[in-house]
Amino acid sequence: MPTSPLRFRQVLSHLPLSAVLLSLAPASRKLALAAEPTFEAFCRRHAWRPPRRLKDHPFVHRMLLRTRACSVCLEPNANFPVRRGAGGAAAGAAVAFRLCRSCARRDKVQQQISAHGLEVDALGVDGKALFARQFHVPLFGHTNGFSSDLRSKLNAKGL
Ligand SMILES: [Zn+2]
Predict the structure, then answer these.
(1) For the chain, how big is the Rg over CA atoms in Å?
(2) What is the Å distance from ligand 1's center to 67 Cα?
(3) Residues within 5 A (CB) of ion ligand 1
(4) Residue 106 Cα, ligand 1 centroid: separation in angstroms?
(5) What is the DSSP string of 42-104?
(6) pTM score, two decimals?
(7) CA-closest candidate to residue 57, choices 34, 43, 71, 36
């Protein structure tokens, strides 16, 4: 029994956007085309317009969503570009994808980024730092500055 396009769209509207983007749309061209109106609605809600040269591309809103939203959770405020290659933003490395602040700070995400030779910008496009304080300067010069080590180093030296 063939499924009507309307019913299919209703099913899509009940799925999480990330599942539609990351699992359903890549499965086939037909599914990607069926999902495009869902992506378009999301892009419209955030006033994201496709570049003029791509406006006739059949999957333009899917592309837009993938480049503008957080790659992990699809949060629209993805202020932290992740770049390929050493030197990051200072070296003019290309943006591979973007992350929101909370995903960019997660240990698991940080591990994946470095495992793939990528670098997340320490300063977001909104001008805010990813980490307010990465480490503190030790008062007595016994440690490397990371507070987690402080107690063990002090104990080892019997101080
Ligand atoms: Zn996120």
Answers:
(1) 22
(2) 13
(3) 70, 72-73, 75, 100, 103
(4) 10
(5) HHHHTT----GGGTT-TTHHHHHHHHHS-TTT--S---EEEEESTTGGGGTPPEEEEE-HHHH
(6) 0.69
(7) 36
pLDDT tens digits for 75-104? 999 999 999 876 777 777 888 899 999 999
The better pLDDT of the pair 4, 21 is held by: 21
The pLDDT of residue 155: 55
pLDDT of residue 101: 96
133 CA from centroid of ligand 1 (Å): 21
Q: How far is the CA of 81 from the centre of ligand 1 (A)?
A: 12
- Per-residue pLDDT, averaged over 33-50, amounts to 94
What is the CA(94)–ligand 1 centre distance, in A? Answer: 20
- Asked if 106 contacts 121 with a C-beta cutoff of 8 angstroms, the reply is no
